[in-house]
Fold these 3 entries.
Entry 1:
Amino acid sequence: MKGKVHKYGANVDTDVIIPARYLSLSEPAELAEHCMEDIDKEFVNRVKPGDIIMATTNFGCGSSREHAPLAIKAAGISCVIAKSFARIFFRNAINIGLPLLECDNAVTQAEAGDILEVDLSNGQIKNRTKGITFTAKPYPDFMAELISAGGLIEHTKKRLANKRG
């Protein structure tokens, strides 16, 4: 995956990723229209398919709602890279097939607008703008399968279909 960095600080909570006033929405495309609007009003106008969100610590803290990673994924974000994630957000993101990587050095040395190329299979993050490469811990095989399939539900559907066939 390859895209431009949209960079944020610490403690980006689920209420700014998708404000509570939009929780009655359930369609991912509708959620995407409001993604990050309380922290970055221009995000939805700037984001392009494949772009990458980057943040410092505790990204996705707050409520356990799955709307937050859904909004991010539907907005076209291919990956979120942070120094650390709130654990429930991490689990929700993996469950819907949104890749997350923890890599302190990549976050510290990247700036908004940098172009990154990410290889999930080996955890490699290449900052094409600055010509530097970082390595995050790659996913265990099962988690990689979940992400590749598009999340837990899609992974389960494929496994059930394979057993029937």
Entry 2:
Amino acid sequence: MNRDLARQLATVLAVIATITINALANIVRFNGLNTGEISDRFNVFFVPAGYVFSIWGVIYIGMLAFATYQALPRNRESQRLRRIGWWFVLSCVANCVWLFLWHYLQFVPTLLAMGTLLLTLIQVYVLGGVGRSTPSTAERWCVDIPMSVYLGWVSVATIANVTSVLDFVGWSGWGISPPTWAVIMLVVASALALAMATSRRDISFLLVLIWAFAGIGVKQSATPSVATAAWLATAAVGLMAAATLLTRRPPRAVA
């Protein structure tokens, strides 16, 4: 089989498997548990309201769009898709592994799976030149935007995963309270947003962080320090997004 055709087929199968396993995890309830119910076990505050997780629907649509677009015969020899294809497949594997580890309460190993998912998506993002290329309209909607949204959410999820595992192992937080750590993480995530706004001018990535931060503000309304920090972060990233839109320059073309 042609290497490019193998990559295309592997990508399609990886996306189907990822979406199916994620759906079954909550329909069948792996280990008798719901993904969100497990999250609620931890005394952490960098967690958004339940409705925020509906973003997975957007991510799945983006994954399907990507799988379909890259599978088209005319895109078989695309240099860009060649660079990112297998990294994306590996990200799908990491996604599925994380889900099984999480549902079977193997929390510490989830850090390795989540770290792999994050790093592979960063590779896709960087090697694909997202924010630094001039794709067609179809490619922007089927490659750039889906990868930006996915990476943005996984960036937030990584922070939440780390804080949950630290709570699980009984980390003292160096004497710093969990709400204060949540505020610190919001500052770190906001700094990431600023970096993406200035280096990639990536509106999609910023919108994901706005969605997540607002959800944290809603979820943590009973903890004023966290809720206030979350709403301030939401406003700050909103301003970054507005400034990016107003000053956006066409990115340079890459092969």
Entry 3:
Amino acid sequence: MTQSALIQGGSGGLGRALVNRILQSNQFDQVVVTGRNIQTIDSRDPRIIPIELDLLSDQSVVDASTAVASQIDKLNLVVTTAGILQDESLGLKPEKKLTDLSRSNLQTVFSVNCFGPFLWYAALGRLIRHREPITIATLSARVASIGDNRLGGWHSYRASKTAQNMLTKNLSLELSRTNPHAIVVGLHPGTVDTDLSKPFQAGVDPDRLFTAEQSAGYLWDVLSALTPERSGEVIAWDGQTITP
């Protein structure tokens, strides 16, 4: 039976490391890898199917989902790595206080962290709506936990990831009604040494600052051990459930 995986944002950083880990597992016959620029996707492995996708474009989401559906019948693993915390070109950075909020920055952060991934899942349609085992994982963050929030700040990032977690729970319940084998989770990758985290690494314990390869390995171990009973949870790199 053909097994197919799809990694959104698999052209660099943690996404590429996850693609490599999935290929090394030899569990999948086809691995769809998306990127905003198809030329940045490493497609030397014959199992890789490169697809161009920009989650901020509704037309790109439609076109990409159509392209995926033209080449495979169903998906057994879907991982979405989309995330934005700051962008100097947009004047976007984590807010320290409420008066730092702006509508445009809120819209940008929510569009990338929350709207994009779940509009993507909606567009995939029948590819994820079947009765065979499937795992859908969206990268989340520990700072999205309301119960664990003791510092405040980072308003748009925290809120967008918290909203993402609610949609994760909703999708887990929706798919479970027709597929008891479906698993839908959020994944916290830890602090990964990528462009997203570089400005905020000063206070991080060196033992808890992971390379992309380390984090991908931890996340793959979590994914490999998941059961439907954990569907709807947000799970950290070490396998622990994060308080909502």
